[in-house]
Amino acid sequence: MADRLFGTTGVRKIYGSEFDLEMALNLGKALGTLLGEGTVLVARDARTTGLMVADTLSAGLLSTGVNVIQAGIIPTPTLAFITMRRGLDAGVMVTASHNPPEYTGVKFWSKTSMGFTSEEERQLEEIYMSRRFKVAPWDRLGNELTTETAADEHIQAILANCDTDLVKSKSYTVVVDPGNGAACVLTPYLMQKISGKVVTINGQLDGHFPGRKSEPEESSLGDLIQMVKDIGADLGIAHDGDSDRVVFVTEKGEVVNGDRTIALLAEDYLRTNKQGTIVTTVDSSLVLDETVQKRGGEVIRTPVGDIQVAMKVKETGAVMGGEACGVFIFPEFQLAPEPFLAACRILEMMARTGRSFGDLIGDIPVYPLIKAKVRCPNEKKTHVMQELTKVLPKALENVTQILTVDGIGVILKEGWILVRPSGTEPLIRITCEGPTRKLVEKVLSTAQHVIEKTIDSTS
Q1: pLDDT (tens digit, 9 = 90+) per residue, 427-456?
Q2: Hey, which bits of 235-325 come out as E strands?
Q3: Which burial class, exposed, middle or buried, applies to 427 when counting CB atoms under 10 A from its CB (0-12, 13-18, 19+)?
Q4: Between β-strands 67-73 and 39-44, what pairing exists: parallel, antiparallel or unpaired?
Q5: In Å, how far are 165, 427, 448 from 373, measured between CA atoms?
Q6: Cβ-based burial of 61 (10 A; exposed 0-12, middle 13-18, buried ≥19)
Q7: 149, exposed or middle or buried, with CB in 10 Å at 0-12, 13-18, 19+?
Q8: How far apart (Å, rounded) are the C-alpha atoms in residues 165 and 302?
Q9: Residue 22 near residue 118 (C-beta atoms within 8 A)
Q10: pLDDT digits (tens, 9 = 90+) for 201-231
Q11: Contact assessment for residue 327 and residue 303, using Cβ atoms and an 8 Å cutoff
């Protein structure tokens, strides 16, 4: 685990102790060597390290003879979309997504708008580790250009894919919370095009994330919830640092879990496409399966990570994919997460049905689902997970099935629990769902105790 360069998606490490500019330079050289030629789009989120890491990556690419277009601060989905739309050879996003401000990292995107697969990451990592980089002569170095229209191009494409006149006619009030991240340059402007009134909080780009922590979850969205209720808004929208995630808040201030929103959007798709497939990850609620099956559709589950979802969406021809953390993939638009189109689709549903978001999402049941984290050194993760495969199922009651698609999934007679190592932090993550909160808390407590004991006993 400790020797791996790539995590769940891309490279994500603490700047200074785990990530430095030499690493950025060599990642650029490795990608340039892998491509051989062509043009790469480079962009960044608002992190304090972003500019110098982006410039250093660019230098590495230029040294191999590959051209670079620098796009400045834009959301990750915008980088992926523009890479595809302009027919570029790859996209590189300098970001650590929803991680705390001391982290930096790099995500790689292919010309199809999909993130690099694990095989592509493996090839890149092999070149990086070998240090056998292509070196272009002085007169064949790459050229660097800049572009300032990426966010505008993305906005126009999104508007062309939703019924803007219908949404505009309702004059909705929307509150946007980009969390001082990259969505500051896109979501407020997109919403101004289709809403009656837009209020933005935490709307200044700031890599210290002073407004709230970068991960958008109920505990960090107090200001957004309050603002939605105070002004009587119709919808609240919150993003993470690089804006590949979005979380929605109802007019009553309820923060809606991503898997319920996937279920709502999936139900809408399946009204017109009865045989549709929806792809989600192993940690999504069973309510998604129930909702989709009622509409005649099918749910396929993958390991955690938007790239895993995108790969399966592409492979199966699914109509939609998503993750409970707030990732939504619409393959007719692009294979990267597309939070902005998701927001427009929700407003479109509200406008078409004449119902509020809270009313619409009320049709999707809520099952108690609790998540927890246990700290675990990266170097212990592999051994701990191996041990847990043996000891965890024995510690739980009424086990009906054990899954190892991603981590350890234990299906119980009532509910389920998933234990998996974080690909980006020294943590083991636990997700548990069941029919009652009391049962979920009991199962979660048992699992936490077993995991902590296993970590302590692993040398």
Answers
A1: 999 999 998 999 999 999 999 999 999 999
A2: 235-239, 246-249, 255-256, 277-281, 298-302, 320-323
A3: middle
A4: parallel
A5: 44, 6, 8
A6: buried
A7: exposed
A8: 37
A9: no
A10: 999 999 999 999 999 999 999 999 999 999 9
A11: no
Which three-class secondary structure state does DSSP give residue 80?
helix
Distance CA(207)–CA(188), nearest Å, equals 18
Give the pLDDT confidence of 164-215 residue by residue, as tens digits: 999 999 999 999 999 999 999 999 999 999 999 999 999 999 999 999 999 9
pTM here? 0.89
How does DSSP classify residue 69?
Answer: E
For the beta carbon of residue 437, count every other beta carbon within 10 angstroms.
12
- pLDDT value at residue 7: 75
Q: Which residues are catalytic?
A: 97
Instruction: Pull the structure tokens for residue 51.
Output: 């500019």
Instruction: Give me the CATH code for the 370-457 domain, please.
Output: 3.30.310.50
Q: How many CB atoms lie within 10 A of CB 457?
A: 10
CA distance 227 to 233: 8
What residues have CB less than 8 Å from 338, skipping those under 6 apart?
77, 81, 328, 329, 330
The CATH superfamily label for domain 11-148 reads Alpha-D-Glucose-1,6-Bisphosphate, subunit A, domain 3 (3.40.120.10)
Q: What is the fold, at CATH topology level, of the domain defined by 153-251?
A: Alpha-D-Glucose-1,6-Bisphosphate; Chain A, domain 3 (3.40.120)
CA 331 to chain centre: 15
**SS3 label, residue 158:** helix
